[in-house]
Amino acid sequence: MYAIRNTKYELIMGYFRENIERAKGYEPGFQPKEIDVVKLNTNESPYPPSPEVMKVLAEIKPEQLRRYPDPLGTAFRQAAAQINNVEPENIMCCNGGDELLRIALQAFCDETRPAAYPVPTYSLYPVLANLQGCDAIEVPFDSEFNLPAKLAGTGAALTIVCNPNAPTGSFVSVEELTSLADELSGVLLIDEAYVDYAEKNCAGLVKDFDNVIILRSMSKGYSLAGIRFGYAIAQPDLIAGLMKVKDSYNVDAVAITVSTSAIKDQQYFRQNVEKVKTDREQLSEQLREMGFDVPESQANFVLAESKSYKAADIYDRLVQRNIYVRYFNVPGLNDKLRITIGTKQQNDKLISALKDILQE
Ligand SMILES: Cc1ncc(COP(=O)(O)O)c(C=O)c1O
Prior knowledge:
alpha/beta, three-stranded antiparallel beta sheet, 14 strands, 37% helix, binds pyridoxal-5'-phosphate
């Protein structure tokens, strides 16, 4: 049996569930092949992983590859528990934070159990909700990105709040999220993929609430986006339920070894995070001086809006200069550029290119 393609080359096979046939799929940020570009488009750390990580990577034994990995990632659970002041039973290892989002939607949502989240936010949420076949209730933030009061009353089985939020960098206070956890009848997943760069975090909520899941990623402050490792923090019963949904060996042996070593090197982690935070403030100020509107960010990126130039034009002109930032061609974001904080040198290149572009 051959797949039939229509004139627009859309696949119409009839094999897939209807929502999969219709889905466009998530569109990741562009990954240029050349390495000498200024890449500020996918919120990676501009710094290499800890030297300790490179050491354990070089010492991986053939036996570690021959065998299946530890299904629970025990070494990582222990290290992450210590750092977050919880027990290993409060931790579940994931193949990137993205896997935890998929697991949570699969665990809590279906046709009669919707998901809800404030928008604009991480564009993967609606994609995963569609794959799961559940409704996605999108509640708009106000113009200052305050948590919408209506979010507490959607009746969703799973409410997701990205904090700091992407792509805005805005931060909802721990007190507000505590009240939300208290008001919700369903589960609250707080996506803390960018919390490394924030002043506070919500891990403490796990002690008091049996409906809170914290998502963490090793892709940002720990410089391990290429390894694919994240984790959940929640009460043991919630963790045990999520474990039923994960693949049996969802994190591989190399990833467990490398991520454990990275999370243990808190000194190196803090040093890199502080550099990014300092440079974020400097870049924000420079962009503001050039006429961009840049709200305060608690993440490793800023969202910049120019009142006098089209964001899409600036984006194209930056690409011509081998500088990549992120442009979202969707209502509410299509007048803005999301810029990852790079090294000082990369940020300087960006600023100097923008100065040229704005004079053209
Ligand atoms: C808001 C948000 N949540 C979760 C993730 C998942 O990160 P990862 O799968 O790399 O751990 C990302 C990745 O960029 C993100 O932006």
